[in-house]
Amino acid sequence: QALAQHGETAEEAGDFALTPEMTTWLRRLTKEHNRKDHTAMAADLRLMACDLLANAERRIRDLHLEDALIRAYRVLELVGQIRLFAHGYDSAALPADDEVIQRLRKKWKRKGSNDFDAGKNNTLIASRLQVARLVKELGDPLGEKLLDFDKDPAMQVRNRNESVLVHGFEATAPPEEAPLRDVLDQLEQLLREDDSQATKRLHTARSLSFAISRPSAEP
Q1: Which residues pair with 170 in a beta bridge?
Q2: Which letter does DSSP use for residue 163 in this model?
Q3: pLDDT in tens, 69-127
């Protein structure tokens, strides 16, 4: 609705004019989600993940590394949620009586691992790491790759809640751009493995950069 009411012509907007492709993209991103429709949720979150990845790239470009790290973490989390929705599961409402869920809980109990949190109406809630483990338990090849991110020091996933942008008091992102760019490259590969349309979606998401090149200062 806001897009339709901005009132500017393409000529008035200049370099900031939205193409039809951009407008369609933004409308799809802002539509209301139906969590009970797992197939639709997987499709919606695939767009969101691509958009956040492109956004994280722009944060690195502008040297907002802590912002980039938080967005990268969310993309990683989204990939796991996407894979679960694709398998017919909602990470915030897992059926406690499901055979796969029960099997995984028994494994965790034997190992002394943390159980799912309790949800409403005999459902369970999974953390990001538990989502990755469930994806693996379902035989999904991306499950192991999601778990591998916990071994990447640049991702700092275990320290994410300690970020000044979440619950902490200090920055937790790497001090240099390169490790974060490597993380985003790995996340992009995950998106491509999950979705054959990821390349096209990323192209659209990246086109909304609207970066303005500034002339260098006079010596």
Answers
A1: 163
A2: B
A3: 889 999 999 999 999 999 999 999 999 999 999 999 999 999 999 999 999 999 999 99
Q: Is 170 helix (H, G, I), strand (E, B) or coil?
A: strand
| Nearest partner of 69 among 89, 90, 55, judged by Cα | 55
Tokens standing for residue 31:
């539509």
Q: What is the Cα gyration radius of the chain?
A: 20
Separation of alpha carbons 98 and 101, rounded Å: 5
CB 57 within 8 A of CB 206: yes
The 10s digit of each residue's pLDDT in 176-203 is: 788 889 989 999 999 999 999 999 999 9
CB atoms inside a 10 Å sphere around CB 127: 14
- Whose structure tokens read 């943390």? 114
Torsion region of 210: left, alpha or beta (phi above 0 gives left; psi -120 to 50 gives alpha): left
Bridge partners (DSSP) of residue 118 are 124
State the alpha helices, DSSP H only, in the chain. 2-5, 10-13, 20-29, 38-61, 65-86, 99-111, 128-137, 142-148, 177-194, 198-207
